[in-house]
Amino acid sequence: MANLGTYIDGAYAGTYNAVGIGPTENGWRLRKSVSGQAIDESDQYGNTLIDFFYRGGSCRISCDAQEYKAGTIAPFWPWGSLGQVITSAVPIGMRASDVAKALVLTSTAGTPAAAAPATLTATYSVMAMGQDVELFFHSRLRTVPIILQLLPYTSSGSTVWFIIT
Questions:
Q1: Helix (H, G, I), strand (E, B) or coil at 14
Q2: Which conformational region is residue 92 in: left (phi greater than 0), alpha (psi within -120 to 50 degrees), or beta?
Q3: pTM
Q4: What's the average model confidence in pLDDT over 143-147?
């Protein structure tokens, strides 16, 4: 039968600070948003959005990890041990980039995902600001919701959130 499209599938294994995250429920979700300054108020067009100036954006990646272990708790709460608000090592006022760690997603060999992309590396990833994440303590599988803000950095002369290879 002829190929009727470009279809990609294949699982990705994730590490945070070189520690395995383990299996996830429904994989990884990459979210990007654009920021801009709107041109949207004029005598001629009222409040119609006419155009906007690109002003950067935001990039997040998330998953629901299916194991409760060091590799999932570290990205879930990078500010010290689970339950701690401040420590001498992580005081109030510390920059997120100072606790950010590398997130690496590697595709499963032999699947279509192995080439699209084979690896995604986000060098500065940290728990996203303003996110309410819930950790359930009950008799069912304890999934750990991980929502990471990808902070921009310079790589090969470009400002990036992540590198794909």
A1: strand
A2: beta
A3: 0.91
A4: 96
Residue 4 reports pLDDT greater than 50: yes
Please state whether beta strands 19-20 and 12-16 pair in parallel, antiparallel, or not at all (unpaired): antiparallel
Q: Which helix (H) or strand (E) holds 125?
A: strand 119-127
- Given a contact cutoff of 8 angstroms between Cβ atoms, the answer to whether 86 and 94 are in contact is no
* Tens digits of residue pLDDT in 28-38: 999 999 999 99
Q: Give the closest residue to 14 by CA, choosing from 58, 64, 60, 79.
A: 64
Higher pLDDT, 92 or 1: 92
Judge whether 107 and 114 are in contact, CB under 8 Å.
yes
Distance CA 31, CA 44 (A): 35
Banded model confidence at residue 152, pLDDT cuts 50, 70, 90: very high
Give phi and psi for 117, each to the nearest 5: -90, 165
DSSP for 38-59, written as a single string: EE--BTTTBT---EEEEEEEEE
Q: What span, in angstroms and rounded, lies between the C-alpha atoms of 59 and 157?
A: 19
SS3 130: coil
Helices (H) and strands (E) in the chain, counts: 1, 10
